[in-house]
Amino acid sequence: MNYNKKTVYDADVKGKKVLLRCDFNVPQDKKTGEITSDKRIVAALPTIKYLLEQGAAVIACSHLGKPVATFDGYVKKQVEKGRNEADITREEWEKSLKKLTLAPVAKRLSELLGMDVIFATDTIGEDAKAKAAALQPGQLLLLENLRFAKGETKNDPAFAKALADMAEVFVSDAFGTVHRAHASTAGVAAYLPAYSGLLVKKELDIMGKALDDPKRPFVAVLGGAKVSDKINVINNLLEKADTIIIGGGMAYTFKKAQGYEIGTSLLEADRIDYAKDMIAKAEAKGVKFLLPVDNYCAAEFSADAEPVLVEGNIPADLMGMDIGPKTVELFSNAVKGAGTIVWNGPMGVFEFEKFANGTKAMAKALAESGAITIVGGGDSAAAVEKLGFADKITHISTGGGASLEFLEGKELPGVACLLDA
Question: Is 271 a catalytic residue?
């Protein structure tokens, strides 16, 4: 895939209306609706400020959460959850939409920019069209939640065209959504010249270079629960990395493939042959393939369970929950002297304090490695931030699913649609 795309720096936006796709999918307090972290809003500011400074009229848009765009769809979803169709009201559906309005984002954006942000109460309806038509250079309009319209996730050409008709240029700056072919991420590029924003540019520059031309040795650290989630990542990285480190729940399927007993640990029995193939492929290619040599185990999957250190075979009544001290040493030594390290997925049950040590140790090892360090979104990013190592990491990706598909070598629809540089 070509990562070399035209950016906002290449676009002539003076006096033009720019449709800017942002990622304002912010976490909110379930009871009050208060934004609990404005990190994603702050991340969009450099592109917004640049466009406004260049004399553009900016029409920002984003999704928030997973609203159900139609009442019929809402009823269907509730019935699937076991509710009686007769009990489901249109009023509660409308209430569910109100919880996911982007109005609080518009308010926070106003505060951060120190200017009035105009808010449209719909996406392509009368309010949005009128406010977009009246928008002047240097002004910012935020449209209502894109997923309130059923055409967004279906990449409906009519919805994409209606969005595009409000503007003259499209800028994509929501890296967290570029792996999805939605109307606002890919569809609009059929009607407008499409450029990358500064956030997407940074992701493509750093992650693209790490995969295409890494500073060596190149070490990939992969964790998380399932082998099946990372099959394509491992396949792709076996062609590129010098060392692959496997931790987390997925490691036990590999240990089983090596002939070890894994007790009641997480196992994908249908992936054992695949795991054997990967180990053999790594050996044939001269890629170091490191697996845990000891584990902290427990009798049950619980935050209160007592950790039991086990080396080699895991007893029948125990499950692996985290990597042990010998594995921490093995993995930490493997990242010392690396040129590039990519990390995606925790080393154990990171959400349980007693089983978070392996993930903490990995974060520390990356921070102290001196390498170009890239942390994929999701749990590993949360771990690095929570532990206070974020400022020592070269790049923390803003997209969980997108960064995973990037590591898989997949074509990302929201990047493929941008103009080539």
Answer: no
Helix 400-407 crosses helix 198-212 at what angle (to 10 degrees)?
Answer: 30
Query: Does 286 participate in catalysis according to the annotation?
Result: no
Q: Looking at the domain that runs over 8-65+100-199, which CATH code has it been given?
A: 3.40.50.1260
Q: Which residue among the candidates 5, 40, 180, 255 is catalytic per the annotation?
A: 40
Q: Of 176, 358, 378, 400, which is the active-site residue?
A: 378
Q: Six-digit token pair at 380?
A: 């590993």
- pLDDT for residue 377 is more than 80: no
Q: How many helices (H) and strands (E) does the chain have?
A: 15, 15
Q: What residue type is assigned to position 58 of the chain?
A: V
**Distances from the Cα of 255 to the Cα of 246, 260, 279, 332, 350, angstroms:** 10, 6, 10, 20, 20
Q: Is 400 a catalytic residue?
A: no
| Contact (CB, 8 A) for 55 and 14 | yes
Calpha distance 258→277 (Å, rounded): 11
Q: Report helix angle 103-113 to 39-53, nearest 10.
A: 60
Spell out the domain ranges in the chain: 8-65+100-199, 207-407
Among 125, 138, 208, 401, the active-site one is 401
The CATH class for the domain spanning 207-407 reads alpha beta
Q: Is 401 a catalytic residue?
A: yes
pTM, two decimals, is 0.88
The reply to whether domains 8-65+100-199 and 207-407 share a CATH topology is yes
Tens of pLDDT along 187-204? 999 999 999 999 999 999
Q: Which of 77, 209, 226, 326 is catalytic?
A: 226
